[in-house]
Amino acid sequence: CDVGRTGALTPVVNLEPVLIAGTIVKRASLHNQDIIDKLDVRIGDNITVRKAGEIIPEVIAVDKSKRKHGASPYKLPTKCPVCHTNAEKAEDESALRCPNFNCPAQVQRRIEHWCSRDAMDIDGVGESLIEQLLKNNLISDPGDLYFLKHDQIKDLERMADKSAANATSSIEKSKDRNLDRLIYALGIRHVGSTIAELLASKFSSLNELKEASLEELINIGGIGPKIAQSINDFFKERSTKELLKKIEKASLTTKQKQIIKTSNKLTGKTLVITGTLEGITRDEAEGLIKSHGGRAASSVSKNTAYLVAGLEPGSKLKKAKDLGIPILTEVEFRKLLE
Predict the structure, then answer these.
(1) DSSP label at 42?
(2) Residues in a beta bridge with 122
(3) Which of 169, 218, 263, 338 has the fewest other C-beta atoms within 10 Å?
(4) Cβ contacts of 183 within 8 Å, gap of 6 or more
(5) How buried is residue 307: exposed, middle or buried, by Cβ count under 10 Å (0-12/13-18/19+)?
(6) Please, are residues 130 and 112 in contact by the beta-carbon 8 Å criterion?
(7) Helices 225-236 & 238-249, crossing angle to 10 degrees?
(8) What CATH number is associated with residue 25?
(9) Residue 94 domain-assigned (yes or no)
(10) What is the Cα–Cα distance from 233 to 210, expressed in whole angstroms?
(11) Is the pLDDT at 259 greater than 80, yes or no?
(12) pLDDT at res. 260
């Protein structure tokens, strides 16, 4: 099982290496016990795997004609495979969860999420470095990243002056991200990038969101009781309060930046950015989109008007091509706004 940042235990299968959509796949998700039971997956089975959303390998079928006699059914563990806390399952959910907020796997995944491209976009701080920082007790949550010294990173295994400088520079730059990115980075359960954008449009600061009542949250269109309760519970947690203190001490931007509207050229249009832009940062590009009346989204859908593709674009590029969405270079994006 893999342990996610919110404690969800996701069963995975180990495969003989196979090429799928251009990459070698060795593991695939089974999502939850309900899917396992529905497919009747057993150890040693021949299975069919696809990439969900062109990213995550998942099991979609079992060839039972090739099943070995006596193959054992797969059952999820009753304890977290990392911290060994008893797993729990809510009545309205199919996923088992590790309830231990301090589970090492959850801590690692939360920090990885904070650093991810759609969150605080901290280049040079990936899974391997985060693992070392935790192992050496240099960090315990995302807030600690902002107090790391260059030499602390440089002295770690497989790190050097250049990589340490890149990491510290990226961490410093992330202090000025937009409010919606910060909200998403917090990793509040049920709050994805779209809900984070909605919250940032309704509240002018992180503090304002923190102080919002359950009723206020429920009354926002698109925020149901389940999400509202999750947000409300999150800000009551002691660990959240400690993280917010570190964020404040590190002088991160926690207020919504004022967007001065310059034209209506993109009114009604949704744009998505993928890859690294050379002339401007992603936040600046998203600010330009909003200042011209458009909406900057983090994922491609049939409602996307344009995909702006920078260097080393990700899976969003393939999805945009599959959906026939116009793709702009950085130069073409700038011309669109002239």
Answers:
(1) B
(2) none
(3) 338
(4) 191, 196, 199, 200, 206, 209
(5) buried
(6) yes
(7) 70
(8) 2.40.50.140
(9) no
(10) 10
(11) no
(12) 81
What's the average model confidence in pLDDT over 103-116? 97
> What's the number of domains the chain is made of?
4
Q: Quick check: 163 and 169 in contact, CB under 8 A?
A: no
| Residue-wise pLDDT tens digits, 183-233 | 999 999 999 999 998 999 899 999 999 999 999 999 999 999 999 999 999
As a whole number of angstroms, the distance between CA 186 and CA 12 comes to: 26
215-247: burial string, b at 16+ Cβ within 10 Å, e else: ebbeebeebeeebbebbbebbeeeebeebbebb
Check: CB of residue 291 under 8 Å from CB of residue 316. no
* Alpha-carbon gap, residue 227 to 198, rounded angstroms: 12
The alpha helices in the chain, defined as continuous H runs, are 33-39, 104-115, 127-135, 150-154, 161-173, 179-185, 193-202, 206-211, 214-218, 225-236, 238-249, 282-291, 315-323, 330-337
Residue tagged 């690692």 (tokens): 108
Contact 175, 251 (CB under 8 A): yes
- Per-residue CA distances from 164 to 124, 175, 276 (Å): 8, 17, 20
Q: Is the pLDDT of residue 121 over 70?
A: yes
Range of the domain at 227: 179-249
What is the model's pLDDT at position 54?
64
Q: What is the CATH number of the domain that holds 171?
A: 1.10.150.20
The token duo for 192 is: 């994805």
